[in-house]
Design brief:
Pfam families: FGGY_C, FGGY_N. By secondary structure, this protein is of the alpha+beta class. Helix content is 42%, strand content 16%. It is globular and about 65 Å long. The structure holds beta-L-fructofuranose.
């Protein structure tokens, strides 16, 4: 989650500087049968961030929140939070995609939502709650997606921001509005949903209670592209109008910007998503499992008393045997297994491959498999949009993993332009700067990012090494195909 204040320094070339004031971890909590977010802690940490910004001597004109997609809180008619919001990896949605598809038809579901069928999309969470006869659904007055919920706690104003709305599966991008008909067919109430507002809208000011609690003056809270992926996409420092990007973090989101959603059957078949961004643009992108797989291995090793830093893990991977074992990172079994290293080993056994036999070979297997998956999705994106991309922009925290960037350049056989790391925070700030009139449009913002943050270029290996990567990719594709045929994953 990002909370940023902004400062524009007038120099010969205008540059944007960002300063990290506060960072906090965001761990889910298992309570009984369900996995939840620690929503009160997140709110408290946001407030701590605001207080620290003023204490550090800044006089922020505004603040804005962006978070992961799909999750939400429900308010009762007194404006109080009903229960603790579910985490999108909670198991309540298991099997729900199939059920909802059978009920309303999968092609129609795609055409009316533009989204790939990810079990955690809001639509499936709500349907799971309905199946469980959750009383919360009966008494809920308003549904607020996570950034909207936090904005509400800060300002007392209820608002629904457009980019988040498009992650729900209940917003119809073709018609442009909530899909009331679909909600009714699923037995869900449509009166909980607010009319979406565009990124850049001022929601309101901090409440007097929040100001008093923090000892700070009133400040505007702005709805930006509050879906973190869309904030990050808005900060990609591309110089051409058509470009491909990869937002790398817990998830890897690979896509390209489009003037309108692409709702063809080919997009449906390849399971890409159309997600709304700034200025009514859409992004055709795919969710790829991402560094979550590595994060979970690291957590398990830590639990077992073997702690490694990411730098150590990458060093071990660098000297491990290349292209020994590959996995399909998007196999559903990797969504939230209790023991990720064991899940990877069992995947390899199921596919007749050698198991990774060391920490280094495990990390290498994850990174190489991700890199090949990026190539596959990049080529699919080109086919779907009729574009040819000269290389891939990589942004987000994951680009600190230089081995991943280098492997990606080799897998795709094209350059990777990496940077900036804090893309979501920067995209968030750009929309605030536009709202306050410091920049005129997002194009200017993109140029500002290019002038302000260095990009690291990773070139693919020379011609003689290409054959190795091509053979590795062919092996990866064969693995994926046999996986699909056997129904594994
Ligand atoms: C990335 C992200 C993805 C979304 C996933 C779950 O942080 O926002 O875009 O699909 O989290 O919400």
């Amino acid at each position: 989650m990002h909370l940023q204040s902004s400062g524009l320094a007038e120099e010969a070339v205008r540059k944007l500087r960002i300063t990290e004031i506060h960072r906090f971890p965001n761990h889910p909590v298992q309570i009984g049968r369900h996995l939840h977010w620690d929503t009160p802690m997140l709110l408290q940490e946001i407030k701590n961030g605001i207080r620290k910004a003023f204490q550090a001597g800044y006089e922020p004109q505004s603040c804005a929140i962006d978070t992961w997609g799909v999750d939400f809180g429900l308010l009762d008619r007194n404006g109080e939070l009903l229960g603790i919001p579910y985490h999108y990896r909670d198991r309540q949605t298991e099997g729900v995609v199939e059920e909802v598809s059978a009920l309303v038809g999968s092609e129609r579901l795609f055409r009316e939502s533009g989204l790939q069928f990810m079990p955690f999309n809001t639509i499936y969470q709500l349907y799971a709650m309905k199946k469980a006869a959750s009383p919360k659904l009966d008494v809920a007055d308003t549904l607020l997606l996570t950034p909207d919920l936090m904005n509400y706690f800060l300002t007392g104003k209820r608002c629904c921001e457009f980019s988040m709305a498009t992650t729900t599966g209940l917003y119809d991008p073709g018609r442009g509005g909530w899909n009331v008909q679909l909600l009714e067919e699923l037995g869900l109430r449509s009166d909980m949903f607010l009319e979406p507002v565009s990124p850049g809208t001022v929601i309101g000011s901090l409440t007097s209670e929040v100001c008093a609690e923090l000892g700070v003056p009133p400040m505007n809270v702005v709805a930006v592209a509050s879906h973190d992926t869309e904030s990050a996409a808005a900060a990609v420092p591309a110089s051409s109008a058509s470009f491909a990007y990869l937002v790398s973090g817990t998830w890897s989101l690979l896509g390209t910007q489009m003037p309108a959603p692409l709702l063809t059957s080919s997009v449906f078949e390849h399971q890409f998503s159309n997600e709304g961004g700034v200025d009514g643009n859409y992004h055709l992108l795919k969710n790829i499992m991402g560094l979550w797989i590595l994060q979970e291995c690291k957590r398990k090793w830590e639990q077992d008393g073997r702690s490694f830093t990411y730098a150590e893990l990458i060093e071990l991977a660098e000297v491990a045997e290349p292209l020994r074992t590959l996995i399909d990172p998007d196999a559903l079994r990797f969504m939230n297994p209790p023991d990720m290293p064991e899940e990877i080993r069992s995947y390899c056994r199921d596919n007749g491959q050698l198991e990774p036999d060391s920490v280094g070979s495990m990390v290498r297997c994850i990174l190489e498999s991700l890199a090949f998956r990026y190539r596959q999705v990049l080529e699919q994106a080109e086919m779907l949009t009729g574009s040819k991309f000269a290389g891939l922009h990589m942004v987000g925290g994951g680009i600190q993993n230089e081995l991943l960037c280098a492997l990606t350049a080799n897998a795709i056989g094209r350059p990777v332009w990496a940077g900036p790391v804090e893309a979501s925070a920067i995209g968030n700030v750009l929309v605030q700067l536009r709202t306050s009139g410091h920049i005129n449009d997002m194009r200017e913002g993109q140029e500002l990012v290019r002038a302000s943050f260095p990009q690291h270029i990773y070139e693919p290996d020379e011609a003689e090494r290409r054959a190795v990567w091509e053979a590795g990719y062919t092996r990866y594709l064969r693995l994926i195909e046999s996986d699909i045929r056997s129904g594994a994953g």
